[in-house]
Specification:
4-stranded antiparallel β-sheet, globular
Length: about 200
């Protein structure tokens, strides 16, 4: 492949990531999305019914934390479409990475955290180095998904953003640096989005 063709393909893929319809068992991407596309889908009522169902099941689980109720929540979440915000993949597996997107997804959930408050806290302390681009309430409504820009080495940047969030907010995020990690899409008409 020529250098010019590789450069052209890189520009096409840049800031795109894989989108998977049909739930977590679907490992071949349906298409590639931009953050504009994802923000539009999340804020539109496309996922509203399923998100409301998950939140109803989660409320049942919190009042009766049985294995059956937890399984009901997990089974419903597994049906949601999802993205691999960190890049474009031929298949949802790190070895199948085609191109990094320049984004990292952070899963921030807590039992007593208000998602809207968490969004505002992250925006209050973010800066030119640690820039969130998209923040939305998680399917359970007990946390948020925060998509940050990544510059350079993904794992190092991911670790540094985690450290920043712990230092600035005392918020623990999921420690995984797996670029093929799935992030479920859900309904949040009040998401925060910064266009590129």
């Amino acid at each position: 492949m020529s250098r010019a063709l590789r450069a052209f393909l890189f520009l096409i893929a840049m800031n795109k990531f894989s989108y998977f319809e049909g739930g977590i068992h679907q490992v071949i991407p349906t298409s590639n999305l931009s953050l504009d596309d994802a923000a539009e889908r999340i804020s539109a009522p496309l996922y509203k019914d399923r998100t409301e169902r998950i939140r109803e099941l989660y409320n049942v689980y919190t009042s009766d934390p049985s294995k059956e109720n937890n399984r009901a929540v997990m089974d419903e979440k597994k049906r949601l479409d999802y993205c691999t915000f960190a890049g474009v993949f031929r298949k949802r597996d790190l070895s199948e990475l085609v191109e990094p997107s320049g984004f990292a997804c952070f899963d921030i959930e807590g039992e007593n955290d208000d998602p809207d408050d968490m969004k505002h806290q992250i925006l209050r302390v973010s800066n030119a180095i640690w820039k969130p681009r998209l923040i939305f309430t998680s399917p359970s409504a007990k946390g948020i998904k925060a998509i940050f820009e990544v510059v350079g080495d993904y794992a190092r940047y991911y670790y540094n953003i985690r450290l920043f969030m712990w230092t600035a907010l005392k918020v623990m995020t999921d420690p995984t640096t797996d670029m093929s990690r799935a992030c479920f899409m859900c309904y949040d008409p009040d998401l925060w989005y910064q266009k590129g």
